[in-house]
Specification:
The chain has about 190 residues and is mainly α. The chain has seven helices and no strands. The longest helix is centred in the C-terminal third of the chain and has 36 residues.
Length: about 190
């Protein structure tokens, strides 16, 4: 009972700020829509940010390796940092190629996830909806191969489109959450 009371008190206080959640959602929806208007620019910008993150991460790893020189993993840590640094530098210098490489990695993950889902579904044929899981795996494999066949062009829009979708979905979720808080506030008052 105590946990329930604490939850209601927290929810009541949060409900007073329901408009802020709706505002956040609207801003994210606007940013998502803007991303959809120019997915190529968003893909290039995100590729540059990823490259910069890798570059900084590589420098930090190299510094860490030298700070812990006596460590048995020193050589591995230094090489790992060097690979990150060089990879980040290459991605930042050639963001178009970087977007294609990142899309290729995404393609590999999509295809692998589809194959795993298909295998899991085949192993679960006794469960009613196994065919839907299998079908979703087939769709993932097909989408992965289509993206691969469209490389390098798919690299120019895939990342930007995914970022736009994520912003739109996240924004919609926050708007819905804010509306629910507003309703809670009205009904609990």
């Amino acid at each position: 009972m105590l946990k329930s009371t604490a939850f209601n008190a927290e929810t009541s206080e949060l409900a007073n700020k329901w408009r802020w959640f709706i505002a956040l959602g609207i801003v994210l929806i606007v940013l998502g829509a803007a991303a959809w208007l120019d997915v190529v620019s968003v893909a290039l910008a995100s590729t540059i940010v990823i490259g910069a993150s890798m570059l900084v991460g590589g420098v930090v790893q190299i510094i860490h390796a030298y700070m812990a020189k006596d460590w048995r993993g020193f050589v591995f840590a230094r090489m790992s940092g060097l690979f990150y640094f060089v990879g980040g530098l290459l991605i930042m210098r050639e963001p178009i190629h970087g977007a294609a490489v990142l899309t290729l990695a995404l393609v590999a993950l999509i295809i692998a996830a589809g194959i795993v889902r298909m295998a899991l579904a085949l192993g679960s044929r006794g469960i009613r909806a196994w065919s839907l899981v299998f079908a979703s795996g087939v769709v993932s494999v097909i989408v992965g191969f289509l993206l691969y066949m469209m490389l390098p062009w798919s690299g120019m829009w895939t990342l930007g489109a995914l970022i736009g979708i994520e912003l739109l979905v996240q924004g919609g979720g926050w708007v819905y959450f804010g509306i629910a808080l507003g309703r809670f506030r009205r009904t609990s008052a």
